[in-house]
Amino acid sequence: MRFGIWPSATQPWADVVEVARHAEATGWDSVYVADHFMANADGPWPEETPTLEATAALSALAALTERVRLAPLVLGITYRHPAVLAKWAATIDHVSGGRFTLGLGAGWQENEHRQYGIPLGSPRERLARFEEALAVLEGLLRDDRTTFEGDHFQVCDALAEPKPVQPRLPILIGGKGDRMLRIVARHADIWNIWSTPALMAERGLVLDAACEGCDRDPASLERSTQALFFLVDDDRKADDLVARVAPQPAVGGSVERLADAVAAWRDAGVDEVIVPDFTLGTGSARTDAMDLLIEQVAPQFR
């Protein structure tokens, strides 16, 4: 099992770099960056909270690290044309020396679309647009030339050179609805959701059925998940922290309790657990928490 760290893009750039470099030096497998232009109006931070842009941040991290895999979690296709996105993805794969995973989603956050004048559309429209974008991306990243004529995107005998360093640049898709899982089964190399172990197991069964429906071996699709982590020795306090953030998936407690949660995710088929950093504290408290997880929890699953 792999372990990724997710530094919040709402903190200063120096802190993002500190987390990524510490992860690189201490055995973490990957670093993720969220793709949003502002805090969600209903989220844990005020909407006005400064928020770093994901593609610029990941490009810089690709040059500042040498070992960890890098990925957005996840890029919203509503505000990134797939042809331009294919060029960026291939370039960052070269900058990183083949360490990039392209994380994609259909888009959902209303306030950034409304404020920037970017059409969001109904869930049905988003999914239709998303699947067209995936077809364009797959062609441009993998084929010599691509022609696609859809309702939302059109490319004609299109070139995209250079191709990525990796023979098949992995595509991660985030989502949990039944219709999205059918898209995941057709297009993704990696599936990602926020989850508890129970939710991961239930949605995994739906994904398995979707894979079987398109003649795909479910075992060929990697699975990753994230939840908030609260590292506290007092179980009652941990339970209170988890309850406060509900329904946001979260786990809390001692090393032993956290290891139990990871074991349950493993049993649900998870290949990678991703830890958001904003519940781990700041400065040395955060790096100490990262060390505890990678030194005492992760070795039990590697």
What features would you describe in this structure?
With 302 residues, the protein is α/β, with parallel strands linked by helices. The protein is built from ten helices and 13 strands. It has helices at 13-26, 54-64, 82-95, 110-116, 123-142, 178-187, 197-213, 235-245, 255-267, 283-297; strands spanning 2-6, 30-33, 69-72, 75-76, 102-105, 146-149, 154-158, 171-174, 190-194, 222-226, 228-231, 250-253, 272-276. It has a nine-stranded parallel sheet. Helix 3 (82-95) links the parallel strand 4 (75-76) and strand 5 (102-105). The longest helix has 20 residues, at 123-142. It is globular and about 60 Å long. The chain starts with a strand and ends in a 5-residue tail after the last helix.
Topology:
Layout: E1 2-6, H1 13-26, E2 30-33, H2 54-64, E3 69-72, E4 75-76, H3 82-95, E5 102-105, H4 110-116, H5 123-142, E6 146-149, E7 154-158, E8 171-174, H6 178-187, E9 190-194, H7 197-213, E10 222-226, E11 228-231, H8 235-245, E12 250-253, H9 255-267, E13 272-276, H10 283-297
Helix pairs in contact: 1-10, 2-3, 3-5, 5-6, 6-7, 7-9, 9-10
Which short descriptors sum up this protein?
302 residues, alpha/beta, two-stranded antiparallel ribbon, globular
Provide a concise account of the structure shown:
The protein has helices spanning 13-26, 54-64, 82-95, 110-116, 123-142, 178-187, 197-213, 235-245, 255-267, 283-297; strands spanning 2-6, 30-33, 69-72, 75-76, 102-105, 146-149, 154-158, 171-174, 190-194, 222-226, 228-231, 250-253, 272-276. The chain is of the alpha/beta class.
| Count of alpha/pi helices | 10
**Gyration radius, in Å:** 19 Å
Please mark out the parts with pLDDT under 50 across 5 or more consecutive residues, or reply none. Answer: none
Mean pLDDT: 97
